[in-house]
Design a protein that fits this description.
The chain has 111 residues and is an alpha+beta fold. Helices cover 24% and strands 24% of the residues. The chain has 3 helices and 6 strands. Strands 1-6-2-3-4-5 form a 6-stranded antiparallel beta sheet.
Length: 111
């Protein structure tokens, strides 16, 4: 799956560890927008708008590339599989792979 490969490529390209608040870096929706753009899919640079761009999926049926939404659509990440996601946690923090926090999930979509 090209989106899964792109998500893994983000790590290989050294994006994990970049700060999300400077030139050439990402915030949470910008990170997912960039990953999906590599797969030829255009997404808006807004988490709430991205949540309306796909088919809703349950936490039990998540696949790599699915978009995960938290905290009233104020934060999001992309599911990598095996209970992990990639995200830009908050301004000033670094892009990282972390547990997907499925207990805090308010929505998930498959683009």
């Amino acid at each position: 799956d090209s989106v899964q490969e792109d998500a893994q490529g983000l790590q290989i390209a050294g994006l994990v560890g970049l700060r999300g608040d400077g030139p050439g870096s990402f915030d949470c929706s910008g990170l997912t927008m960039a990953a999906w753009a590599k797969a030829g899919v255009s997404l808006p640079h807004n988490a709430a708008m991205q949540a309306r761009r796909g088919a809703k999926v349950s936490a039990e049926s998540l696949k790599p590339g699915d978009l995960l939404f938290f905290n009233g659509y104020n934060h999001m990440g992309m599911y990598l599989g095996k209970g992990l996601m990639i995200h830009a946690p908050h301004t000033g923090d670094v892009i990282r792979v972390a547990p997907a926090r499925l207990g805090q999930l308010i929505s998930a979509v498959r683009v």
